[in-house]
């Protein structure tokens, strides 16, 4: 009887160890208290020495990077992290701090909380403001690579059809009315704006895909959405990006219509940077296999 019990115990221990070894790592949801008024919701997976931090854009959430987090799940090469900036997704709805220098300080604090000392920063859309302001304020000592994901080093130029930027200052200071659209109209008819914005983002503007975007965006109140866009208009981090050229790997991943302008800017200002373009603003979500392959290639260049 003793031998049988001993054998049974050994088998149980073996099965438990085997289960631990074969269990697939999860994408873990966590909350980091940054200050008395701010707790940041984040997701994390993988255990590599370098963190890849995906930063969502204007009013978006961690869900937008679901295919990248799944792709890097259980990675031994990198640790994948994404988070909801303040007043977005499941992070705190703060009264103050809705500008990109503060977003950068939030990112710095989150990296400290998560003990991240080496990171590849991936800023999508207005999330590029978060990562570029981080680099401006805190430098690149902890940054091993930078991906600008359908965003530009500066927010405005005279004519956005001739230079790589979001806003143009011709036509009485607001080319095509885009500043007004996202800073004023968003407070007047949010539902209409969210729908039109989603349609612009997508190759496939199906009702389900539009609803996916709307559900993320609606976490952020109208007035905060307006303030975030207005403060973004003032950013110009081109000098910061230029200073990185040749020091860390740079990738500008843009929608197809931005390819020519991004390539021209890169050739003139950051000749070591790579430019990849296809699809629309949400191409990394709609075409994850193609994007993730490019991401893997880029990460192999990170030292």
From TrEMBL:
Keywords: Hydrolase, Signal
Domain AB hydrolase-1 stretches: 51-238
Pfam families: Abhydrolase_1
One GO CC term on file: membrane
Domain of life: Bacteria
Signal sequence interval, chain numbering: 1-25
SUPFAM superfamilies per UniProt: alpha/beta-Hydrolases
Keyword Secreted: no
Molecular function GO labels: hydrolase activity
Name recorded for this polypeptide: Alpha/beta hydrolase
Taxonomic lineage of the native organism: Bacteria, Pseudomonadati, Pseudomonadota, Alphaproteobacteria, Hyphomicrobiales
């Amino acid at each position: 009887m003793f031998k049988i019990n001993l054998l049974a115990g050994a088998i149980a221990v073996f099965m438990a160890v085997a289960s631990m070894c074969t269990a697939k790592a999860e994408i873990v949801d966590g909350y980091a208290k940054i200050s008395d008024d701010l707790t940041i919701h984040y997701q994390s997976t993988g255990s590599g020495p370098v963190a890849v931090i995906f930063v969502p854009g204007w009013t978006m959430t961690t869900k937008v990077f679901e295919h990248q987090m799944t792709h890097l799940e259980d990675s031994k090469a990198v640790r994948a992290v994404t988070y909801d900036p303040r007043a977005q997704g499941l992070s705190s709805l703060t009264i103050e701090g809705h500008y990109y220098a503060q977003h950068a300080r939030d990112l710095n604090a989150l990296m400290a909380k998560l003990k991240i000392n080496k990171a590849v920063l991936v800023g999508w859309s207005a999330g590029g403001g978060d990562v570029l302001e981080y680099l401006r304020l805190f430098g690149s000592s902890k940054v091993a690579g930078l991906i600008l994901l359908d965003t530009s080093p500066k927010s405005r130029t005279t004519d956005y059809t001739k230079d790589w930027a979001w806003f143009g200052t011709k036509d009485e200071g607001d080319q095509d009315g885009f500043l007004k659209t996202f800073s004023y109209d968003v407070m007047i008819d949010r539902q209409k704006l969210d729908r039109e914005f989603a349609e612009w983002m997508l190759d496939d503007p199906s009702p389900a895909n539009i609803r996916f975007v709307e559900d993320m965006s609606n976490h952020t109140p109208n007035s905060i959405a307006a303030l975030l866009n207005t403060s973004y208009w003032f950013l110009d981090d081109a000098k910061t990006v230029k200073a990185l050229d040749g020091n860390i790997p740079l990738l500008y991943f843009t929608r197809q219509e931005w390819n020519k302008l991004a390539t021209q800017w890169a050739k003139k200002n950051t000749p070591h940077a790579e430019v990849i373009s296809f699809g629309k603003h949400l191409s990394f979500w709609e075409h994850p296999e193609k994007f993730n392959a490019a991401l893997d290639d880029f990460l192999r260049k990170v030292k």
